[in-house]
Amino acid sequence: MRPHSAHWGVFSAGWRDGALVVRPHPGDPDPNPLIENFTTAIHHRARVTTPMVRRGWLERGPGPDARRGEDGFVPMAWDEVLDRLATELRRVQREHGCEAIFGGSYGWSSAGRFHHAQSQVHRFLNTTLGGYVRSVNSYSAGASGPMLPHVIGTMEEVARRNVTWEQIVEHTDVVLAFGGMALKNSRVASGGISRHVERDSMRAAAARGCRFVSISPLKSDLPEEAAFEWLPAVPGTDTALMLALVHQIVSDGAHDREFIARCCDGWDSFEDYLMGRSDGVAKSCEWAAPICGLPAARLKALARELPGKRVLVVVSHSLQRAEHGEQPVWMGAVLAAALGQPGLPGGGYNYALGTLAHYGKRNNAVPTAALPQGDNAVKAFIPVARISDMLLNPGQPFDYNGRRHTYPHIRLAYWAGGNPFHHHQDLRRLSEAFRTLDTFVVHEIAWTATARHADIVLPCTMTLEREDIGATPTDPLMVAMHRICEPHGLARDDYDIFCDLAKRLGGLEAFSEGRDTRQWLAHLYERTRTGLESQGLEAPDFQSFWQRGEITLPQRDDDGGILRAFRNDPDGARLATPSGKIQVSSPTVAGFGYADCPGHPAWLPPKFAPDTAHPLWLVANQPHTKLHSQLDFGAHSQASKRNGREVCTMHPKAASARGIREGDIVRLFNEIGACLASAHLCADMREDVVQLPTGAWYDPVLDASNRPMCAHGNPNVLTRDIGTSSLAQGCAGQLSTVQVERFDEELPPIRAYEPPAAQEAC
Ligand SMILES: Nc1nc2c(c(=O)[nH]1)N[C@H]1C(S)=C(S)[C@@H](COP(=O)(O)OP(=O)(O)OC[C@H]3O[C@@H](n4cnc5c(=O)[nH]c(N)nc54)[C@H](O)[C@@H]3O)O[C@H]1N2
Ligand SMILES: Nc1nc2c(c(=O)[nH]1)N[C@H]1C(S)=C(S)[C@@H](COP(=O)(O)OP(=O)(O)OC[C@H]3O[C@@H](n4cnc5c(=O)[nH]c(N)nc54)[C@H](O)[C@@H]3O)O[C@H]1N2
Ligand SMILES: [Mo]
Prior knowledge:
Elements: E1 2-6, E2 9-16, E3 19-24, H1 37-41, E4 52-54, H2 55-60, E5 73-75, H3 78-96, E6 101-102, H4 117-129, E7 134-136, H5 144-151, H6 155-160, H7 165-171, E8 174-178, H8 183-186, H9 198-208, E9 211-215, E10 229-231, H10 238-251, H11 257-263, E11 264-265, H12 267-274, H13 285-292, H14 296-304, E12 311-315, H15 317-320, H16 326-338, E13 348-349, E14 381-383, H17 387-392, E15 397-400, E16 403-406, E17 412-416, H18 420-423, H19 427-434, E18 439-444, H20 449-452, E19 456-459, E20 468-470, E21 477-481, H21 494-504, H22 508-512, H23 517-534, H24 542-548, E22 550-552, H25 561-568, E23 582-583, H26 587-592, E24 616-619, H27 635-639, E25 647-650, H28 652-656, E26 665-669, E27 674-681, E28 689-691, E29 700-702, E30 708-710, E31 735-742
Helix pairs in contact: 3-21, 4-21, 5-16, 7-9, 10-13, 10-14, 10-16, 13-14
The protein binds ligand MGD (2 copies) and molybdenum atom.
C-alpha cells in the first residue's frame, strides 16, 4: 500500500489479487467513502486510451461546425497529433493573436499540486504563446468573490481565516446556518483533506449547548449530530428572512449600537430601507413570512433569541449560486454586525463555513507547493460562468464589477482539468457555443461530454498513475502521492504532453525550466522545507519526505484573522473596504448604478420563480456520492443510481399529486430542457422543491416526440445561463424551476460512459 491523496481524502492504495484496494488514512476520524470510486475507475471503459481527432476537423480543417458533440473520432499517434496541434496553435496566434485563445479552462482536476491541470495549461499558454483569455472567479463563489471585498474583506479572509471549528466547540451559543452545513460538502477540499473533523465538532458543540439552526429547503443539510432546529425556507428567500430578523432586533432596540457606530459604515441609509422609511415597506417578520413560507411568529421568536448570545452567521456557497446571489452574502454580514458579533471567538460572520473542508480550520505556518503560472500578456477576461455568452456574442459588451468590458472573439479553446458539461448551465446552449470555435482541445482521463465535443482529445493520466505532492494551506498533512499503477492505454501526464508541445513551439526551456516531474516535485517541496528550517523545525530533505510518505506541518495560532484584529482596533487594523469598516451600505456599489445590485443589501424578488407551467423549485446541489462529475462511473457513485439513473428527491405529497411512486422514472422539464431521473420520496423537505444533484454525465437523447433530454439526470439541462447580477456575473445554477411527470415511455439506455467507436478517416 502506498500513500496518495484526493480532494476527498488522504488514503493508501495498492493491488490485492488483481483488484485495487484503498484504505483511508488511519488518522482520519470520519473518512470519506468517495475514495471507493477509485477502485473500479482505474481501467474503466470510459477512460480515454489513445489520442483522438474529430473526423470533421480532420477532413475539413478548423472552423465552426454543428457536428461537434455528435461526430466520430479518428485515433492518431502522439507525434502526429501534437504536430497538428502545434501547427494549429501557431496559426491561431498568427492570424488572430492570443486574444483568440481561451485558456480559462475552469475545473477542479485532481489534488496533486504539480499536476494541477489548470496551472499546467495556463503556464503552457503563457510561456510558449505569450498568453490567453482567462476567466476570473469560480463556480463555487462567483457572486461572493467580487462582493465580499466591497463589504468586509476578501473571500480568503472571511471564509478561510476566520472562525474555527475549535472556537465553535468552545464558544458559540447559536449557529445560524443558511444553506446548512452538510457533511457531504465539508468532506471535500481542493488539494486534499486528512482529517474530517466537522461531524465530531458539531456533536461536541451541541453537547455543550450550542444551538444549530439550519435554514434550508432540505433537512439533510445538517447532520443529526448537530441536534438542530430546521427552518425550511423557500429557496432564494434568505435575504428577506435575514432582513426580518434584523428588523425585529432593531424594533426591539436590541441591536448593538456601540458596535455599529464603531465598526460599521452606512447603517443609517440601510436602516431607512429596513424600517420602510425609504420605500414604504417595513421588512418585518410579517412581511417576510409569506415570502419565506415560514410563520411570522417563528421568525420573531428566533430574532428574540439572538441578542446577547454568541451568534455565528454562516451563509453557504449555494445561496449565492442563484439570481441576486450577492444579496444574502452581504446581508449575512449585516445580520452579524447588527448583533455586534464580528471578530468575537466563535461569533460573527463566517461565509461558507461547512461547505468545504478548507473552512473552519487553522492555516499552515509554512508555504506549500504551487506551480508558477508565468505572465499573461492578454488583458481580456470573462467572469468564469460567462463562457457561452462569450463564445456566442464576440464583440458584445458586458458589465462586471462597475466596468463595461467586451467579449473577445475566441477561435480556439484549450481545456484541461475541468468539465464544462458538468459545471455550466443550459447545456444545449453550451453545445451551440462550442460549435462556434475553430478548434477545441481537451485533455481528459475519460470520455466526458466535454471530450466528446472536442476536436482534439488527448488522453491524460489520472492521479493514481503519477507522482505528486498533495497539500492545501488549511490542512497540516502534506502527502507524498506515490504512483499506484502504470498509465492506462497511451495516456500521458498533462505535463509531458505540454513539454512535447512546447518543444514543437520552441518554448520547452521556458515551460519546463529543464526539470522532469521528480525534479519539479523536489523544487516545489523546497519552499516548504526552507519554511520549516527558518522556524527551527525539523526540515527533512525531499528524499526523506518521499520515503516517509507524509509530513505534518506547523499551523498558525487561532487568532481570529482580520475581523478579530479589526474589532480590537478599528483604526489600527482597518478592513480593506473603502471606509475601512464593515460596509452596511456601499457608495461604491451604489455608484455602479446596477438595478440588480443596489447600494445596500435588499430583497430583490427573483425573475424566475415557480409558476403554473413550472411549479416546483429545482435544487441542483452538490452530489454526495462523488466530487462533481469526477469518477461518476466509479463503484460508490454507481451504487447510488437506480436503473442507471441519477436519483431525484421529492416530497411524497408532490409525488402523489403527480401519480409518482418511489423508484419511478420521472421526467423533469422546463423551457430550457428536460432530463430523466429516478424518484425518491422524502418528507424531510419542502413540498415545492425537487432536488437533483449535479454530477450525472450528460447523455443527450431524443424522446418519442423528438424532444431533447438527458437520459441520465444531469440537472444542468434545466438551469438558466444567467449571471447572478451585473456586479459579479456569477453562476446561478443552484436553483431553477421545473415540472415533473412520470415517464412511461420505453427507457433509453445510458450511453454516457460508452467511448466513441474509433473510425477511419475518409
Ligand atoms: N447546477 C449546478 N451546477 C454547478 C454547481 C451547482 O451547485 N449547481 N456547482 C458548481 C461548482 S461549485 C463547481 S466547483 C463546478 C465544478 O465543475 P468542474 O470542476 O468542471 O467539475 P469536475 O467534475 O471536478 O471536473 C474535473 C474534470 O477534470 C478531469 N480530470 C481529473 N484529473 C485530471 C488531470 O489530471 N488532468 C486533466 N486534464 N483532467 C483531469 C476529470 O475527469 C473531470 O472531467 O460545478 C459547478 N456547477
Ligand atoms: N460530496 C461533495 N462535496 C462537495 C462537492 C461535491 O461535488 N461533492 N463540491 C464542493 C464544492 S466545489 C463546493 S463549491 C461546495 C459547494 O457548497 P454549497 O454550494 O454550499 O453546496 P450545495 O450542496 O450545492 O448546497 C448546500 C445546500 O444549500 C441548500 N440550498 C440551496 N438553495 C438554497 C437557498 O436558496 N437557501 C437556502 N437557505 N439553502 C439553499 C440546498 O438544500 C443544498 O443542499 O461543496 C463542496 N463539497
Ligand atoms: Mo465549487
